[in-house]
Amino acid sequence: MSDAVVGMLAAGLTAEAPLFCAWVVMNEPAVAEALAREAFDAVVLDLQHGMLDFVGASRAILSVALAGKPTIVRAPVGEFSLASRLLDAGAAGVIAPMVNSREDARRLAAFTKFPPLGERSWGPRAVLPLSGLEGPAYLGAANAMTQTIAMIETRAALDALDDILEVEGVDGVFIGPSDLSIALNDGRSAEPRGEALMKAAAWVVERTKAHGKYASMFCFDGADARDMAAKGFRLCTVSSDQILLRGAARAELAAARASAPGKRAK
Question: Which phi and psi angles does 183 have, rounded to 5°?
Answer without folding.
Answer: -65, -45
